[in-house]
Automatic annotation (TrEMBL):
Pfam family, one: GSDH
Span of domain Glucose/Sorbosone dehydrogenase: 9-308
The name this protein goes by in its record: PQQ-dependent sugar dehydrogenase
Native source species: Streptomyces sannanensis
Taxonomic placement: Bacteria, Bacillati, Actinomycetota, Actinomycetes, Kitasatosporales
InterPro entries, sorted: 6-blade_b-propeller_TolB-like, Glc/Sorbosone_DH, Quinoprot_gluc/sorb_DH_b-prop
Length: 325
């Protein structure tokens, strides 16, 4: 069952749920955060994030609400500036007038390489209460294999941006490397981290992430079968996926496809597949950017047709509520 929650969003990218169930949406190109009432679909502009410099695939990207939100009212954002990509937290004060409810950004991590392409951008809090981020190699493949660079990585940090004891490299937020452009992060029922990754010309990937492991880019695209690199659990031709957000719902990873214009269901069994991936909504809503678990057998699905690469229809972009059987 599929229904539309809200329409007419401009270049939406990040999507995060507040404790009461309402949603926060970032606009990549406008640099704003908007609250969506999940009962009525009503939109309320919270404000702009200062310092955002939109351009190419950069701008205001991922959002995350921490487990401590009820006490601290902080919202985390990943965004592109004139010089880099960075992660900051902002105070959300609901008592202030609409449009003026965001405090000044408190940057917790800076120096993530930026580019016209491959800025990564997804952030999420894990079951351990720590903050994870997917980054891109900015079109410079060598960054993915450079452990000193924050580009082409999955990062793990404390909520104030510090390297975590137990990370694979001392005094580093790098958690895994050899990635091209990670825009999907989600944990399954066993608290294992999964990530979606854009391929170049051949294979998009779904990876099961292990700390300190090398996922092969640019030496391998897709399954290389080489012991020094971790092979993906599933791959797709790039025209069928170009995956951004993922979510774990009812035993499967659900993966939003941009170029593929479809939603993929990847049933899991252990560390592998329970069945072949299935495609849904092919071409029905255009480019799909973000998918977010909504509790039980429901998920939110956000389109991405106003990002300069899609063909917007009247009402784009929109957030859909999908109930799976």
């Amino acid at each position: 069952m599929l229904s539309t929650l809200t329409k007419d969003l401009a270049s939406p990218w990040g999507l995060a749920a507040l404790p009461d169930g309402d949603l926060l949406v970032s606009s990549r190109d406008q640099g704003t955060i908007t609250r969506i009432d999940t009962e009525t679909g009503r939109k309320t502009l919270l404000g702009s994030v200062p310092g955002v410099a939109p351009g190419g695939e950069g701008g205001l990207l991922g959002l995350a609400v921490p487990p401590t939100y009820a006490s601290d009212h902080l919202v985390y954002a990943y965004f592109t500036t004139e010089s880099d990509n960075r992660i900051a937290r902002v105070l959300y004060d609901e008592r202030k007038p609409a449009g003026q409810q965001l405090g000044a950004p408190d940057t917790i991590l800076r120096g993530i390489p930026k580019g016209v392409i491959h800025n990564g951008g997804r952030i999420a809090f894990g079951p351990d209460g720590m903050l994870y981020a997917g980054t891109g190699e900015t079109g410079n493949p060598g960054l993915a294999q450079d452990k000193k660079s924050l580009g082409g990585k999955i990062l793990r940090m404390t909520p104030d941006g510090r390297p975590l004891h137990g990370n694979p490299y001392p005094d580093s937020v790098v958690y895994s490397y050899g990635h091209r452009n990670v825009q999907g992060l989600s944990w399954d029922a066993d608290k294992r981290l999964w990530a979606s990754e854009f391929g170049q010309h051949e294979w998009d990937e779904l990876n099961l992430i292990q700390p300190g492991k090398n996922y092969g880019w640019p030496e391998v695209e897709g399954k290389g079968g080489r012991p020094e690199y971790v092979d993906p659990v599933a791959v797709w031709p790039v025209a069928e996926a170009s995956p951004s957000g993922i979510a774990y719902v009812r035993g499967s990873i659900w993966m939003a496809g941009l170029r593929g214009e479809r939603l993929w269901r990847i049933p899991l069994r252990g560390a592998g597949l329970a069945a072949e991936p299935q495609a849904f909504l092919k071409g029905e809503y255009g480019r799909l950017r973000t998918v977010l678990a909504a509790g039980g057998d429901r998920m939110w699905l956000m389109t991405s047709n106003t990002d300069t690469r899609g063909t917007p229809k009247p009402g784009d972009d929109r957030i859909l509520l999908l109930q799976v059987k």
